[in-house]
Amino acid sequence: MSEKLIITQCLAAWEQRVAQATKLFDSLSEWAMDEEIAPGRNKVVYVIGHLLAVHDRMVEALELGERSHADLDHLFIDAQQPDAVYPETAWLKESWDKLHQFLNEKFNQMTVEEWLSRHTYVTVEEFATQPERNKLNLLISRTNHLSSHNGQLLLVKR
């Protein structure tokens, strides 16, 4: 019972951060997408794309199916490209919404045993000695990552 409660709390935190990010994305004007978060730092559109690509990787890591946006890794994960041409903001936002609808549906179907099992970024050998490196831990890590970027986006919100 306590494991289920902890998982429910972690899912609630995830859903809150996703809702916060979605609200931030929707509140930013189109001109803000090209704004740097701070001088010499990431542009807003990069952060949105980066979060989309990272969350898309969760589909694979948590064994929920096939990724939809693996083609974004070169733009938003592998290495920053100063002169990159990014996808349209509207497409990024629509893809964000679809991905999170899918993830939330899948997350709510997962059992306690599934949440406490190994994710694909951890080898069987590593997991045998570090069982805390499970799927729930990955969700917590991605929730914290999202919180950090939400904080960055608040810097440009006007």
- Mean pLDDT across every amino acid position: 92
As a whole number of angstroms, the C-alpha radius of gyration is: 16 Å
**Regions with pLDDT < 50 over 5+ consecutive residues?**
none
Share of helix, binned: 55-70%
User: Number of DSSP helices?
Assistant: 7
Largest sheet report: none
The N- to C-terminal Cα distance equals: 44 Å
Instruction: Note the run of SSEs as H and E.
Output: HHHHHHH
Count the strands? 0
Short description:
This protein is mainly α.
Task: Describe what this molecule looks like in 3D.
The structure is a single chain. The protein is mainly α and 158 residues long. It has helices at 2-27, 44-61, 73-78, 89-109, 112-115, 124-129, 135-154. The protein starts with a helix and ends with a helix.
Strand and helix map with partners:
Layout: H1 2-27, H2 44-61, H3 73-78, H4 89-109, H5 112-115, H6 124-129, H7 135-154
Helix pairs in contact: 1-4, 1-7, 2-4, 2-7
Features:
158 residues; 7 helices; mainly alpha; single chain
